[in-house]
Design brief:
Layout: H1 11-18, H2 23-36, E1 41-43, H3 53-60, E2 65-69, E3 82-83, E4 86-87, H4 98-101, H5 109-125, H6 127-130, E5 134-137, H7 140-148, E6 156-158
Parallel strand pairs: 1-2, 2-5, 5-6
Antiparallel strand pairs: 3-4
Helix pairs in contact: 2-3
């Protein structure tokens, strides 16, 4: 496995090794469930490093799974429904092999093949239907896309993103009040991995 200069597996290698089903993620989530005994597990983004193995760990322990659909990853390898700057829905409701042809994931056919295999494989074995108890889509448009993509319609609930009312600022503009660490104040508790584990903003 190719490693970064610090000896940590690179993101590209992690995609190849764990996007289909990550043993390390399964073990880690299993241990978290055992330690914290949650009433529900709420996931935001499982690709590429966590993988659907996290669902399996929760399912095995009898913990209901909720997945917020922040992007279109479950029906589009790129997660955006865009290709070359234009709307693309070739894979919605179909096997995701066009993603390999057009190198949709990280502009790499090899990595797109792994992502397409993961998405197509889990769709085929029913992971999205059997291992996730509820989905949260951010818009009605997104809900319709995911229904077309094969997710169970009755389990998809629309809950838009929300922000706290800006005190003395404008929500339409970007003048939201900030916390001491510089992160925007929002009604969210999920750590944001892109900003650091202490940031209270969800992805």
């Amino acid at each position: 496995m190719r490693r970064s200069p610090r000896g940590v597996p690179s993101a590209a290698s992690a995609v190849a090794a764990g996007a289909l089903w990550s043993t390390s993620s399964y073990r880690a989530v299993k241990e978290l469930v055992r330690e914290f005994r949650p009433s529900v597990a709420h996931f935001h983004n499982i690709f590429p490093l966590v993988s659907p193995a996290a669902y399996d760990a929760c399912h095995a322990a009898g913990v209901p799974v909720v997945q917020t659909l922040h992007n279109y990853r479950l029906v589009c390898a790129a997660g955006t429904l865009l290709r070359d700057g234009k709307v693309c829905e070739l894979c919605v409701g179909h096997a995701p092999w066009p993603a390999v042809r057009y190198a949709c994931y990280r502009e790499s056919r090899a990595e797109s093949l792994v992502m397409a295999a993961s998405l197509g494989g889990h769709a085929a074995i029913g992971t999205w239907r059997s291992k996730v108890d509820a989905y949260i889509a951010l818009t009605e448009f997104a809900r319709r896309i995911f229904v077309r993509g094969g997710l169970p319609e009755e389990r998809i609930h629309v809950r838009p993103n929300a922000v706290e009312e800006a005190r003395g600022g404008s929500i339409a503009g970007l003048a939201l009040p900030s916390s001491p660490d510089g992160c925007p104040r929002r009604r969210a508790l999920t750590p944001c991995s892109t900003l650091g584990s202490t940031c209270p903003i969800s992805r």
